[in-house]
Amino acid sequence: MTETLIKTDNPVLKVRDLSISYEAGKFAVKDINADIESKAITAIMGPSGCGKSTLLRAFNRMHELYPDIRTEGTILLDEMDIMKMSTIELRRKVGMVFQRPNPFPTMNIYENVIAGYKLNGIKLKRSERDDIVEKALTEVTLWDEVKDSLFKKGTFLSGGQQQRLCIARALAFNPEVLLLDEPTSALDPISTARIEDLLVNFKKDYTILLVTHNMSQAARISDNSMFMYLGELVEYGKTDTMFTNPKDSRTEGYLTGKFG
Amino acid sequence: MSSDKVTKTVLFSASLLVLIVSAGIVFSLAKGSIPAFKEFGLKFIITNEWNPTSGKEVYGALPFIAGTLITSILALIICLPLAFSTSLFVAEYFRNTRVANILSSLVDLLSGIPSIVYGLWGFYTLRPFIIKLGLSDQGFGIFTSSLILAIMIIPYATSLSTEIIAMVPDELKEAAYSLGATRLEVIFHVIIPTASSGIIASYILALGRALGETMAVTMLIGNSNVIPSGLFATGNTMASIIANQFGEASGLKLSSLIAIGLILFAITGIVNSLGKYIIRKFS
Amino acid sequence: MSVNNIPAFIDNIDGRNKKNKLFLGLVIALSVLTVLPIVLIVSKIIINGIGQINFNFFVQTSPDSLQAMSAIANQETIPGGIANGILGTFLIVIVSSAMAIPAGIMIGIYLYENQGRRYSNFLRSTTEILQGVPSIVLGIISYLWVVKNITNGFSAFAGSVALSIMMLPMIIRSTEETMKMIPNEIREAAFAMGTPYHKVILRILIPTGFSGLSTGILLSISRILGETAPLMMTALGSTIINYNITKPTSAVPLLIWEFYNDPNMVKLVWSSALFLMIFVLTLNILSGSLSAKRKTGRKK
């Protein structure tokens, strides 16, 4: 049984009856209904195979990269149906950070941050570009660390720094929503903590959706949490409430480590 | 000596065979060329004449070096868009589908056809076609031979670059898509830069193959011992002149042909080594 | 604090989408164009060649120009066949294989057993260079080594020497690759049982890698079957069936070349080409299916 979130004014994203299948009859995600609170961190949790990544990727239609996908239902971004938007426009408003840091190896740090613009063929003046790069890197607290090596390739950066670079790259477009797919699972605890601090800071400007298999991470930084199981949205509510008083036995089972 | 030591020695001695044969090739080519170089000096390489009239024999390699380089490079240029498209088809757009496998197998078949069969097809089908198009009177010449050569090297240009393109990590492509890139943009801004050295190496290796091709080119190039004067003019290549005249050559002419063989060996060796070096350096 | 406000983009979403679709169309069109030649070539050979193939084709030797000319004048099938070519090719290939296969396997095993050594790397590089030597240059070499010095005249053996040098690098490479795919545990288990080295090679490594080795061998044979240029200056050709490797021999590609140069024999060109092509493609397909079987077999 799914649950639409407690009333918030103008949720930035609305999911209505979303179902995604990869093969006839096999649903990765089924009948999802939810409102995503604007300028808050919403964590999506669940055991492996529960569909959390598929759901996350639906928000910027990355799930369509795979063949034989069937999507039913709608997702509204600012009241506009994202299935009817051009993916190019959508992906400027909804940015993504992946599990393993993936800076483009043939580009230097500067070029990586500005890569979104280059890929889209958007011409900017040199000063505009410099501004964007500096602001994005400052936002991820990477500026001081790399400002003297902007034109070197990012391979010398540590995993945590590379991931922050990828976040900067996603932020360069000033998106409304930031999707993060287990962004710290490949990183050490210190880098993880640093990125978690960043995300908490970002709340004021961006809506954040965070898939995580780390329950304590969800508990630490998220405002709202979704628990998914076998493709269904089992429970969805304020993180504090859900963790202390889960309504569904499956949620409780997951949170207490009985499975997952 | 224990039997194991014997085995090891046998294997090691076998390995020497490669070195002996290779050294032998260089040595024999050099030795055979000496009379020609003694007579004509190093200018042999840039002499633009091939005159077997006895009494005033003058031999020079330039027309043939020119013919080989022009046909091979032109063949590479023609083959490039075709091979590149096929690589993208198989490794990116239709990866792992049945169509891609069929296409891949068909392209592989191209490499199984012997050179002389290509020559036959070129002579009996391609040549009349070129004549019909009004591009040339007889249909022989640089263009026709480059065209057939291009077809012959497509499988070599395709196979390696397909592998390399397929190896570009999915996560890089996904990152680009998530930033709003179209497929075309992902190909040109991410896949190609990442795979660039492998792609270049495969074309260099294809060039190496083209340089040494003999039969098909011999049958279509027109066999005139001059530097070709235009795209549809006739000419000759190093491999062809050797194939055509070696059997009955002797003396200075034989030595000149061997010298041309040495030059061909050197050029092919350099090109192939360059290709292999690029692959090794970037993998 | 958010990043600067990006105004409405001055960019071109429609244009980009259009370019995207156009490019895909271009890729598909060019890919189809790429396979067009093979379809054309194969069909031309089959259509033109099938008419001349009959039983005699395989058992009789090649006709001479006069016989061919009168047959055409009378609108009959040209008499004779390519038996001298078939058997000549057979002879040359067998002798080449006898030289190249044992040597190639031994060297491949040497490389496999001595990975990482400087000598091995040097050897491997030399093998790669050898593989790139044009076949016509190998013809020159065999002429200088064999025709001039060993058999004192054109001979099948000279042809075999040239072709075996062509086969060698391919067999070396495929042997080394095959050996690398054998799980190390098998090799170590054999040694741990005290098996002498040569037995490990002959009884364990080679049988285990048999399919991979065969693929390499089949491929290298299919490669040399169609070679013409090096044979022109070594085996030379012959009108009769010959089993003496010190004498000139015919070969199918050489016959094709002779037929091509004789206006009366043109019809025979296609049937010989058809024969050659079928042989080569069969070997290619066989080795392809062998390696496919190997891959699926492993997955189980």
Report on this structure:
The complex is a heterotrimer of chains A (260), B (283) and C (300). Chain A is an alpha/beta fold and 260 residues long. Chain A contains eleven helices and ten strands. In chain A, the strands form two sheets. A six-stranded mixed β-sheet of chain A has the order 6-7-8-3-9-10, with helices on both faces. Chain A has a four-stranded antiparallel β-sheet with strand order 2-1-4-5, with helices on one face. In chain A, helix 5 crosses helix 7 and helix 7 (159-171) packs parallel to helix 8 (189-202). Chain A is globular and about 55 Å long. The two termini of chain B are 42 Å apart. Chain B is built from ten helices and two strands. Helices cover 75% and strands 1% of the residues of chain B. Chain B has one domain (58-282): Orthogonal Bundle (MetI-like fold), CATH 1.10.3720. In chain B, strands 1-2 form a two-stranded antiparallel sheet. By secondary structure, chain C is an all-alpha fold. Chain C has a domain at 89-252: Orthogonal Bundle (MetI-like fold). Chain C is built from 13 helices and no strands. The N and C termini of chain C lie far apart (56 Å). The model of chain C is unreliable at 1-5 (pLDDT under 50). Chains in contact: A-B, A-C, B-C.
